[in-house]
Design brief:
The structure holds 2 protein chains of 2 kinds. By secondary structure, chain A is mainly beta. In chain A, strand 6 and strand 7 form a beta hairpin. The longest helix of chain A has 14 residues. In chain B, strands 1, 2, 5, 6, 7, 8 and 9 form a 7-stranded antiparallel beta sheet that branches. The longest helix of chain B has 13 residues. The chains are: A mainly beta, B mainly beta. The interface between A and B is small, with 11 and 12 residues.
């Protein structure tokens, strides 16, 4: 007898969907402190590196370590460039002090809250990370009609709050 | 359950008729300096589509068994209204004012922030006594496109302008 016996088993599950999430930066400038105009999110939930070795005619991998999680966020900005200015200030002033020095990790961090939702837009899980931006924030101008959009990678320095349901 | 009898059909309320409706711009955007009233637009509107919404499907396809779940609902986002033009060119003045407010000829300057370039309007369906029975409220509307007829030397028809409005969403309810 097979494990999956028919369509009714599949019908009995409420499947997840890619759009059921939400993000907030409580420190972002208004009006984006209460909600954040993110359109795409990639969030490392767990990372595991392996140690690979060979013995005789076999190759083996065993769990070895973990590494810094990353959050990739694509968001829209308003006509005042509120968010790009905010992240620009975060990198160039808060962290780099106008190019004079590099701030401590504690000073460089901001909080990001990520929720996973069900179809009733109720919270299924909640994670709060302390993050700092990595890499560039780049303005991409064009001559077409389109929204003003930025992509930023954030490095996770710590998980502040965690509420996940398992199983 | 039996097939409906003629008395079942006769017992239904009056049929809703496609001629019984009106258009009411609840707000013409502040930046639109058009010399036309809400009633003048209503009187010239010959036909209109009604707003719709579509629910995208999430397909779960597992080894030959496909189950669909409701995903994101998207509104139609455009609506075509056909207006009959009068010799005072009220409709032309109306869409020109809206078009110019969005994108000034030659310079591309907008007359106002987006919020002042968008309006909302109501489409009311009426019963046979011309009492409102259903209302569509179209929110965040702006003039996205307009199409004009070909002028010729043989038609007797009035000049009709199709205005395509983009909108953010709509709400509908029984009156």
């Amino acid at each position: 007898m097979a494990f999956l016996n028919g369509i009714e088993q599949i019908r009995s599950v409420e499947w997840g969907a890619t759009y059921l999430w939400d993000v907030k930066f409580p420190d972002a400038p208004p009006p984006f402190d209460s909600w954040f105009p993110a359109v795409d999110l990639k969030e490392d939930l767990a990372k595991l590196s392996t140690y690979d070795f060979e013995a005789y005619i076999h190759k083996f991998s065993i769990p070895q370590s973990t590494s810094v999680k990353e959050i990739h966020l694509t968001f829209l900005d308003d006509a005042k460039q509120t968010l790009s200015s905010w992240i620009d200030f975060w990198i160039n002033q808060t962290i780099l002090n106008g190019g004079q020095s590099v701030s401590s990790l504690e000073t460089s961090l901001k909080l990001i809250q990520i929720l996973k939702l069900n179809r009733q837009r109720e919270q299924v899980s909640s994670l709060a990370y302390a993050v700092f931006p990595e890499g560039n924030i780049t303005f991409s101008g064009s001559s077409d009609t389109g929204p003003l959009q930025y992509s930023v990678t954030f490095k996770v320095a710590g998980i502040i709050g965690q509420k996940r349901t398992f199983p | 359950m039996a097939r409906p009898s003629i008395e079942n059909i006769r017992g239904l309320p009056d049929w809703a008729q496609v001629i019984r409706w009106d258009l009411q711009f609840s707000s013409i955007p502040a930046a639109i300096n058009a010399n036309i009233t809400i009633d003048e637009l209503n009187f010239r509107c010959e036909s209109t589509a009604l707003p719709t919404a579509t629910v995208a499907a999430i397909e779960t396809n597992i080894r030959g068994h496909k189950v669909k779940s409701p995903g994101i609902m998207s509104y139609g986002n455009t609506l075509d209204l056909v207006f009959a033009e009068t010799v005072d060119s009220k409709i032309h003045s109306f869409f020109k004012a809206w078009r110019d407010a969005i994108w000034q000829v030659k310079t591309g300057v907008a007359a106002a922030p987006v919020a002042d370039l968008k309006g909302s309007f109501l489409l009311n369906r009426l019963n046979n006594q011309d009492v409102q029975i259903w209302q569509y409220k179209v929110v965040g509307a702006y003039l996205e496109n307009h199409s004009l007829p070909t002028l010729d030397g043989s038609s007797n028809d009035a000049l009709k302008v199709t205005l395509t409005f983009s909108y953010d969403y709509y709400e509908d309810k029984a009156a």
